[in-house]
Amino acid sequence: MVPAAWLVHAAAELLQEGGRDALSTRAVSAAAGVQAPTLDRTFGDKDGLLDAVATYGFKSYLEGKHALGETDDPVHDLRRGWDLHVEFCLHQPAFYMLMYGEPRVREARQEADRMLRRIVERIAEAGRLRVPVEQAAQLVHATGMGVILSFLASPPEQRDPDLITAAREHVIATITTGNADRASDIPSRAIALKAVLEKEPGDVLTPAEHAMLAEWLDRLAR
């Protein structure tokens, strides 16, 4: 039996060369040197194949994310993560469109979302977040994905890389304070306290008290 990894690799090469439209069952079967039923037995259907190829792309993307590591400045880490995201998009546009342009949610994509949320949580813990963690993470994700998909959908001669940078700085300015020393307003303090308590809840408060405190902090944050 032909290994699934070989079939995915063959499909990935077709994707890079011709985009999503190149991933027909016939083309992938020919590239892998197998009969079409082999793909059905391995992946179930074409959607299963697309999921496998997208997961293959996410593996490379997440390896780059993990390689970044962490610095003492979580806002700087957010910029680095954004820039790596953009770099992947520019070098692997067909993969990016498959990974982020498809409506289905994949486990690998959920891991990428968790990594983004962790960076945002670190910004909150440092007292530098203006809005609640979940809202900030969603805003960064939506802004980044939106501006990149728009960039890829534009004719090459109309693409402006500076727009992506401007979007990055706009969203960072929207969700963060200038620095920890100036993060003295009540909402930022409430967001920071909630982030720390969620990370290290301790045993001083009961679960009900934790829930009540979290609700109060959310009110203060708004």
Give your account of this protein's structure:
The protein is mainly alpha-helical and 222 residues long. It has a domain at 69-221. 74% of the residues lie in helices and 0% in strands. It has 11 helices and no strands. The chain has helices at residues 4-18, 25-32, 36-43, 46-68, 74-91, 93-101, 107-125, 133-153, 161-175, 186-199, 207-221. The chain is elongated, with a radius of gyration of 21 Å. The mean pLDDT is 83.
Q: Poorly predicted ranges (pLDDT <50, ≥5 residues)?
A: none
Structural class: mainly alpha
Number of strands: 0
Number of DSSP helical runs: 11
- Based on CA atoms alone, the radius of gyration comes out at 21 Å
The whole-number mean of residue pLDDT values reads: 83
Write down the overall geometry: elongated
**Beta-sheet strand percentage?**
under 5%
Helix content, binned percent: over 70%
Main sheet summary: none
Series of secondary-structure elements, N-terminal to C-terminal: HHHHHHHHHHH
The end-to-end distance, rounded to whole angstroms, is 58 Å
